[in-house]
Amino acid sequence: MTTRERANARANNQRAAQYTEMWIVGSPEDLAVMIHAASRTGRLVFVSAPHQMGGDDTRHRRYLRLRTH
């Protein structure tokens, strides 16, 4: 591995370590509370639109990207 490849790999690892990505599942009210809390701490980077779980399940799921620092 060349010096340039090592530097690029290290930069990519550091960039990836800055964020946590997750799916959260729950009632729309519960998700709203979680998203509001993440937003108030300044860690919320991205939140997807709500998606219904399907069938007769009334829960929703949302994708979140949060800063780790």
From TrEMBL:
Domain of life: Bacteria
Name of this chain's protein: Uncharacterized protein
Species name: Micromonospora echinofusca
